[in-house]
Structures are given as structure tokens and as C-alpha cells.
Specification:
The complex is a heterodimer of chains A (424) and B (345).
Chain A: E1 3-9, E2 12-15, E3 20-22, E4 25-28, H1 30-37, E5 43-51, E6 57-59, E7 62-66, E8 69-71, E9 92-98, E10 100-105, E11 121-122, H2 125-129, E12 137-145, H3 151-171, E13 180-184, E14 197-206, E15 229-230, H4 233-237, H5 254-258, H6 261-271, E16 276-285, H7 289-306, E17 311-315, H8 322-335, E18 339-345, E19 367-370, E20 376-379, E21 384-386, H9 390-396, E22 400-403, E23 419-423
Parallel strand pairs in A: 1-9, 2-4, 6-21, 10-12, 14-16, 14-17, 17-18, 18-19
Antiparallel strand pairs in A: 1-13, 3-4, 5-12, 6-11, 7-10, 8-9, 15-16, 20-22
Chain B: E1 2-8, E2 25-28, H1 33-40, E3 46-53, H2 55-60, H3 62-75, E4 80-83, H4 90-107, E5 111-115, H5 120-125, E6 131-133, H6 141-157, H7 164-167, E7 175-179, H8 184-197, E8 225-230, E9 234-236, E10 252-255, E11 267-269, H9 277-281, H10 289-298, E12 303-310, H11 318-334, E13 339-343
Parallel strand pairs in B: 1-3, 1-4, 4-5, 5-6, 8-12, 8-13
Antiparallel strand pairs in B: 2-3, 9-11, 10-12
Helix pairs in contact in B: 1-6, 3-4
The chains are: A alpha/beta (424), B alpha/beta (345).
Chain lengths: 424, 345
């Protein structure tokens, strides 16, 4: 499977009469984009806002962030299973507007464990320095849906509108020579004997929540009843996956499936001739031990027997419970002779090591710990607050005290976080 | 900068174990190790007062010794308090640790000591202060004093303190956040490759080894008074005790007197960490009142206590759950409960 990403850097976004990419300046037509968004019958009206790095601007709560990408004409569908038939992603050419993002807001707070503010996009100040998203040019989409519709239906409309806009923007690059192309292909892994065989095992959902019936997660499937499955690294990068609507247990965005930090690092090492990146397993965190025993064994067996891994790296999705699936999968792999490293989130609200881990297996001793409980920010007032309604705008206006987890990207669980716990 | 230094009878030059009962004494200027310590501060600091106390006296009269020492430190207008190094001397370590913590809390100036990791004073105080790892070899006195001086200077200047391995102190078992250059994904791959190659790697977190809890003696279940306790967040509608859904600091006691079966309409769930729909449908799935009533009727248990206890376990740190657990245990003891069934999610 060979995927070619054609990179078109974008350094500014502006409104204009028609969509165009001139050099690194992307011009978008609000009229055209509005028509695309309003194809979703549940959305009554929409506003667009442009945000650039260092703008005194705060937006939220964020539904999802997507990098503008479009499959070259004749290739597989964009976002298969969501915008097109569920054909295999990850082959052919995809045009990418690097440095740009389509950021969809939501009209209510994600609530629960993420608090009233949900995820905030902060473009300046200390919190911005902790998130990759503050370095991007954003087209912020502010939806206004009809009242009295179920939350899941509203979020489905957000998703479809956001993905369609992201595809449309990248189509501006079709006729333009890319600044750079990069080929993702690991098919030589079987011919390079002697290099360690590395696999990635990533949770794509947690049964701490039930997926909505029509929710798109994997090729448009809601993952209900799903068993761990092989999913080629290129499929992760090229539109097979979006995060759940249940953002409160997330720490995952579409942007970092498209730019998956673990997969990109494994590919980099593969291309450097240091390892054989042999593949990836998509798995689910379970809600009960019966499912957990089955799922963790399926995931470990796929890595050991289908991919014949020497070593594996594992990431989780969601909150506390997924640590048990993560660590049990790693423990099983270690007993099968596969070396592992796992990425966890910091559970220690009292800042004590004894509270930090939700497992204790001697074999699972290589742990990357995303911190966050020790980082709080007092957000100042900013010049522009972008929110879908006046209540949320008032909440976000500041000054406001928030946790690191509330700034989108800071405590990302797909491997993007630069925050770590330090034991002292 | 002005230092007050604490020594035991041995390092203070009074003598050995036969002087362990000596009460706190004060000397002007540096004594013994204090003179070496001054050298490592490069002339910036002077030991104004040395406090010397017998090990037995210090442990047996800890509060009085602390009060006297605090007074002397105030009088000396100290900028820094130093105790030890204590190496493996247990009573010395306990006194030094307690004094340092009291100085930090009451006088708000930096305090530092040094001892071996195995010294009982270390585990009692490491969470609250920096204790330089002295090892157990008293012959390394100069090396240990040098590290104490280096760390003390950083503390006095308010500089950030590096990791235990780099600075040479005993890990406090605490966590702070740091933004780093390499992403979590890169760190993950770095780490697994080192592990695979058999190279040393630094895990960013380590599991805690908890002491095992001995099984209590067996009871006669047929005559036992049993109570139900849950951390799944089941509370009566309206959440009367306002038990927080995440990192709860409170727990509630709710009557199930004369109740045979919990009804979803009467309860709600204050817990954001699991899919609560099944418990909402039937709270007995979390607090198994219905089957406990069966067991009561069948004589398997003596009887079920007329209240259950509930809190939320979500994202709840151990320091907090330990306190709540103790409070619940006290309550159960007062009620004469013989056995508890703890249900989680």
C-alpha cells in the first residue's frame, strides 16, 4: 500500500470571491462554504472566522480539528465510509494544505470530566505555546443548528459539514505542483531482515461511553461490537478514522489521525533504516472484564502472530478505565516476548506518584506519562472570543481559570503532547 | 547568608550513645561538619548558630525541641536551616526531618538535610522536603555536604530543582509537569527501542508497591451484619450530599430500610467515568440489594445493614480515597458491621 502526500504549505487564509491557492495564501469563498454547510438540513446558519498564530483570540468549545486534505481525482474516496463508500483509504495521492486547519465549534459544552468550557482553541499566550494547534491557520466554522434536535444528530451534522469543507479547501491545490511530496510505504519491511519489527496498537474508542448509533468512527462504523483489527498505518493517516462525539473522554482529534505522531515517528525510523514498521492494530477499551479478556488477547495476538512484532508501542483513548486494557495488552505481549512501551495519562490529582498509575505489572515498565494535573492557566481577556452562542462567549471571555486538559492539543493522547510528568 | 545547623550528640562532639539523653544545646558558630559546610558555600554563607541535641532526647521530646529550635533560628535571623547529614542514624534522621519540615512550615525559609534512603526519617519526611541521599557511609561526609550546599543554594535562590538522580536527593514521590521538546509519540518509540535493545531507559512513571493487606479473621457469615459500599456514584435523586462526579471528596449514607429492590427512578449517578445506562435502568446492578435480600431470607448472611455508603471513585487520588476509606471503616466499626461488600465499576 503506497500513499503519497502532496504538501502545499499555507501561511494565510483570507476571504474572497472564489476558492484559490496562490503561493501560500489560501482564499476561501464564504458563499460557497456556506452552501456546503447548509447541505446539512439540521444546520440553519453558519459563520466563518479566520484565526492565525498569535492572534488575541479564543474559540470554543471545539468539536474537532481537521487538516484540509483531498484525494487526487481518480483515487479512493475522501473520508471513506463517511463522505463516500467505505473503500480502502491509504493509497494513491492526497493533497494536503499543511499549516491549515478547519476547526468546527459545538453549541454546547462537552461537559462531564472536561468541565464547562470543553476544549478551547487558544491562539496566544502560555497555553498556546503548549499546543501545536496554535501554530496553524484556522478556518473556524461556527454552526447554528435548529433547536430541539438530539445531540447525536447535531454532532453528525457538524462532522459531515466539517469534513466536506476540509476536502473542498484542499481541492484548491489539485492543479498546483506541491512544494514537497512524501511517500508512505512499508512494503519493504519483509525484505529487510535483521531490523526490529515494530507495531503500533492504538485504542480508537472507549466503552466508557456507548457510541451513538449513527456515529462515524472507523470507515463510518460506530465500532459497536468491534473486535481489534489490523489497520494499515496508511489507513490511519488517510481518512479511515475520526474521533468519537464523546469528546469529554477523548484527547483525540481527526488532525492527529491525519498527522498521527506515533505512526509518523515509526515511519521516519522505518525510512531511516532503523526498524521495520510492520503495521498497526486498532482496538477498543472495554467496559467489562469479559470483553477486556477477549479484546486484549485479540490485539496482542494480532501484533504477535499476524504482524510478528518484536516490539510494540501502545496508546489509549479516553479516561481511567482504558489503562486496564492498555496495560493488560502490553502485559500479554511481554509474556509472548514482545517488548512494549505504553503511553498513559496522569491520574494523580494529588500530584503523588502513588496515585499516578492505574496498573502495576512488573513487565509493563516503559511508560510515557502525559502530565496535566500540575498545569493550570489563568486565561486573560482576549480581543476576540469565538463561540456559537452568547452564553458560551461569556463563559470564555475571561479572565478564566482552566486546566491544561481544556486547551485542545495540550494533553492529546495520539502522541502529540509535549507535556510530560516529571517525578521529583 | 545566615545558617543555623543542627547536629546530634555524636557529630556535635559531645560523645556517643551515653550522651543520647542530652537536652538541646546552643553553640555560637560552626561545629564539626558545619565548618566544612561553610567552605562549600564559597564564603557566601556563615553558620551563625549550631544546635546540638542527644538522639533520645530529640525523639522523646520532639515538640519541645522543635519549639526551642524555631526560637533559636528566629533569633539567629537565619536564611537557611541545615540538619545533619544523618546517614543511617534513625533517631537523628527522624529529628532532623521533623525539624526541617517545621522550619519550612513555620518560618518559611529553606531547610535541607541528608540521610540514607533506609533511614526511617526519610520515608516520614521526603514528601515534604528535599533530603539529600547520603548513602550509609559516614566516610563520604564531605561529598554529602557539598551536595547539600549546592541544593541549598538553589533553594535559596528559588531556582528550579532537577530530577532526584541529577541533584542527588531522595525522590519525594511527587509529580510536576514539564513541557519537553520531543512529542509523546517520539518518546514512546525512543523508549521501546531502548528496551528492545536492552539499553537503559527512563520510564516517565513507575508503579508504587503497596503493602499487602492481611486477611481479617474468618467470620460466621450466617450471623454477620453486612453492609454495601460502592464507589460507583449511586446517589438518591437530587444528590443530597452533592457528591462530586469526579475526584469526590465526600461520601454519603443512604437508607435502604424495608426496601427490597432499588428503583432507577429514585436514584441518579454521580460518576463520569463509565456508561451509566445499565445502572440507571436498575441500580441493583451496582448496589446489589435485591440479591442481598435473597441471601438474607435464605440465611446465608445474618442481616443487611439498613444503609449503604456511596461515593465516586472517578479520578480520585489515593490521598483522598485513603481518608474516605478510613472514615467509612470507622463508621462501620461504630455500627458493628462484620463484613462489607464493596462494588466498583
Amino acid at each position: 500500500m503506497q500513499l503519497t502526500l502532496a504538501y502545499h504549505p499555507v501561511n494565510s487564509i483570507g476571504f474572497g470571491e472564489r476558492l484559490s491557492l496562490a503561493g501560500t495564501a489560501l482564499t476561501v469563498s464564504q458563499e460557497e462554504l456556506r452552501a456546503i454547510v447548509l447541505e446539512e438540513a439540521l444546520i440553519e446558519a453558519v459563520d466563518f472566522v479566520i484565526a492565525a498564530p498569535n492572534d488575541s483570540l479564543r474559540a470554543g468549545p471545539v468539536f474537532d480539528i481537521v487538516e484540509p486534505r483531498a484525494k487526487a481525482p481518480g483515487a479512493s474516496p475522501d473520508w471513506p465510509g463517511i463522505l463516500g463508500p467505505p473503500q480502502t483509504a491509504g493509497s494513491g495521492m492526497t493533497h494536503v494544505l499543511t499549516g491549515a486547519a478547519v476547526t468546527m465549534l459545538r453549541e454546547d459544552s462537552s461537559g462531564d470530566s472536561r468541565g464547562a468550557t470543553g476544549y478551547i482553541l487558544e491562539m496566544s499566550g502560555a497555553p498556546a505555546a503548549g499546543s501545536h494547534y496554535s501554530t496553524l491557520q484556522h478556518l473556524i466554522v461556527v454552526p447554528h443548528t435548529r433547536s430541539n434536535i438530539p445531540a447525536a444528530a447535531r454532532q453528525r451534522a457538524y462532522r459531515l459539514a466539517q469534513l466536506k469543507i476540509a476536502v473542498r479547501l484542499a481541492q484548491a491545490a489539485f492543479a498546483i505542483a506541491p512544494a514537497r511530496t512524501e511517500v508512505f510505504d512499508n512494503s519493504d519491511a519483509e525484505t529487510r531482515a535483521g531490523l526490529p519489527r515494530l507495531a503500533y496498537i492504538g485504542q480508537i474508542f472507549s466503552r466508557q461511553r456507548k457510541p451513538e448509533a449513527d456515529e462515524h468512527i472507523l470507515y463510518g462504523a460506530d465500532t459497536d461490537g468491534m473486535l481489534p483489527t489490523l489497520l494499515h498505518p496508511n489507513e490511519w493517516l488517510d481518512g479511515a478514522l475520526v474521533p468519537s462525539y464523546h469528546a469529554s473522554i477523548g484527547g483525540a482529534e481527526s488532525y492527529f489521525y491525519q498527522n498521527h505522531p506515533v505512526i509518523l515517528e515509526l515511519y521516519r525510523r522505518h525510512q531511516a533504516g532503523e526498524i521495520n514498521f510492520i503495521g498497526a492494530v486498532a482496538t477498543i477499551a472495554s467496559a467489562n472484564n469479559f470483553d477486556r479478556e477477549r479484546n486484549t488477547r485479540f490485539a496482542a495476538n494480532l501484533a504477535k502472530w499476524a504482524l510478528r512484532a518484536d516490539a510494540a508501542v501502545l496508546t489509549k483513548f479516553g479516561g481511567g478505565v482504558p489503562h486496564t486494557d492498555l496495560s493488560e495488552t502490553a502485559r500479554l505481549l511481554e509474556t509472548m516476548g514482545v517488548k512494549t512501551a505504553v503511553q498513559v495519562t496522569d491520574a494523580a490529582r494529588d500530584h503523588k506518584v502513588e496515585s499516578a498509575l492505574l496498573f502495576n505489572f512488573p513487565e509493563v515498565d516503559a511508560i510515557v506519562c502525559i502530565g496535566g494535573n500540575d498545569t493550570h492557566w489563568k486565561l486573560p481577556q482576549v480581543e476576540r472570543v469565538i463561540a456559537a452562542n452568547s452564553g458560551l462567549a461569556e463563559l470564555l471571555a475571561g479572565p478564566i481559570e482552566i486546566e491544561s486538559h481544556n486547551v485542545i492539543g495540550v494533553a492529546n493522547q495520539q502522541g502529540a503532547s509535549r507535556l510530560r510528568s516529571v517525578v521529583y | 547568608m545566615r545558617i543555623v545547623h543542627y547536629l546530634n550528640q555524636f557529630f556535635g562532639g559531645l560523645g556517643g550513645e551515653e550522651h543520647a539523653g542530652t537536652a538541646l544545646e546552643t553553640r555560637v558558630g560552626a561545629v564539626g561538619p558545619g565548618k566544612v559546610l561553610e567552605q562549600y558555600f564559597g564564603g557566601e554563607c556563615q553558620v551563625m548558630t549550631t544546635l546540638i541535641c542527644g538522639d533520645n532526647y530529640a525523639v522523646e521530646n520532639q515538640d519541645a525541641v522543635i519549639d526551642l529550635a524555631l526560637e533559636q533560628i528566629r533569633v539567629a535571623k537565619a536564611d537557611l536551616f541545615v540538619a545533619g547529614p544523618c546517614f543511617l542514624a534513625g533517631r537523628y534522621g527522624m529529628a532532623a526531618g521533623a525539624l526541617c519540615v517545621a522550619v519550612q512550615n513555620k518560618l518559611h525559609i529553606p531547610a535541607i538535610t541528608a540521610m540514607a534512603a533506609e533511614n526511617p526519617g526519610a520515608d516520614l519526611n521526603r514528601e515534604f522536603m528535599y533530603i539529600v541521599d547520603s548513602g550509609d557511609n559516614g566516610a563520604k561526609m564531605r561529598e554529602v555536604l557539598a551536595r547539600m550546599a549546592a541544593l541549598a543554594q538553589k533553594l535559596m535562590r528559588g531556582e528550579s530543582i532537577g530530577s532526584p538522580g541529577v541533584e542527588g536527593y531522595l525522590s519525594r514521590g511527587l509529580i510536576r509537569d514539564q513541557f519537553v521538546e520531543r512529542s509523546a509519540g517520539q518518546r514512546l518509540v525512543d523508549m521501546v527501542l531502548k528496551k528492545f535493545k536492552g539499553e537503559a531507559f527512563e520510564s516517565e512513571m513507575s508503579p508504587t508497591q503497596f503493602a499487602s493487606v492481611p486477611l481479617p479473621p474468618a467470620i460466621d457469615l450466617a450471623s454477620a451484619k453486612v453492609m454495601l459500599v460502592t464507589d460507583g456514584g449511586l446517589v438518591p435523586k437530587g444528590n443530597p450530599d452533592k457528591i462530586q462526579g469526579s475526584a469526590a471528596t465526600r461520601w454519603g449514607v443512604y437508607s435502604i430500610k424495608d426496601c427490597q429492590d432499588l428503583k432507577g427512578a429514585d436514584y441518579e449517578i454521580s460518576h463520569g467515568g463509565y456508561d451509566p445506562q445499565f445502572v440507571r435502568q436498575d441500580p441493583d446492578r451496582l448496589v446489589p440489594l435485591d440479591v442481598m435480600r435473597d441471601l438474607e431470607r435464605e440465611g446465608v448472611i445474618g442481616h443487611l445493614h439498613e444503609e449503604f455508603i456511596s461515593t465516586s471513585g472517578l479520578s480520585n487520588p489515593l490521598s483522598n480515597t485513603r481518608r474516605m476509606g478510613r472514615e467509612m471503616a470507622v463508621r462501620a466499626k461504630e455500627l458493628g458491621i462484620d463484613a462489607i461488600i464493596l462494588t466498583s465499576t
